Amino acid sequence: MPVRVAEISAPSQVSGTISRHTSPPACTLLSVGQAFSGTQNVSSIQKEEAWRVNVRIQGCDLEHGYLCGTMEALNVPMADTPIVVTFWEGEIVDTKNYTFFTGKWDASPEDDKRHWTKFPSFLPLLSQVEIDGGKSLDLSNCPYIFMRWKEQYFVNVGTDCGLTIAGFYYVCFSCSDGSINGFYYDPNSSPFQKLELKSTNEGRSGFSFSSYELQ
């Protein structure tokens, strides 16, 4: 959820064998209740800026390539409240339900390629993705899960809060340590705003999120 702005962010060895319609690897760190904490860099030409971000997974259905959750942006300078909360839905790139080509949200195949190639873990897959969007890749043994997260609505503020949810995130999730890296895409926002998150023990033991109700 970057700031709204006026119209005018070494490759690892990842297997990519050919086999259709495989599910991503099961991962205990990508499950309902899991929480993540980190930062989003929202720097622009005018200034450097980043804020704290918390994410919690509210739903996950690997079979259908779906997950959803909430995102909290803390201490956003222009907001009337110290925490801005959004609800997001995600698409898991599994070559069955979704491919690496977005096909909506004003993202062209070239936009997709520019953002996915920001992730070193994606680079071994690039040649096949250029051919068919990765439809023929077997991602079942890939140590990373690639996703798109699209914020759907603000939970605790109105649309005049100074932030935008018009764009979406390209996301790479590490199954080994639960870390998340992402890049926000919105033609009307600063490019390549980076999201960096680490898994926490919240939901399993201790980190506390704010209280709010999903409508």
From TrEMBL:
<dbReference type="GO" id="GO:0006623">
    <property type="term" value="P:protein targeting to vacuole"/>
</dbReference>
<dbReference type="InterPro" id="IPR018618">
    <property type="entry name" value="GID4/10-like"/>
</dbReference>
<dbReference type="Pfam" id="PF09783">
    <property type="entry name" value="Vac_ImportDeg"/>
</dbReference>
<comment type="similarity">
    <text>Belongs to the GID4/VID24 family.</text>
</comment>
<dbReference type="GO" id="GO:0045721">
    <property type="term" value="P:negative regulation of gluconeogenesis"/>
</dbReference>
<protein>
    <submittedName>
        <fullName>Glucose-induced degradation protein 4 homolog isoform X1</fullName>
    </submittedName>
</protein>
<dbReference type="GO" id="GO:0005773">
    <property type="term" value="C:vacuole"/>
</dbReference>
<dbReference type="GO" id="GO:0043161">
    <property type="term" value="P:proteasome-mediated ubiquitin-dependent protein catabolic process"/>
</dbReference>
<dbReference type="GO" id="GO:0034657">
    <property type="term" value="C:GID complex"/>
</dbReference>
<dbReference type="GO" id="GO:0007039">
    <property type="term" value="P:protein catabolic process in the vacuole"/>
</dbReference>
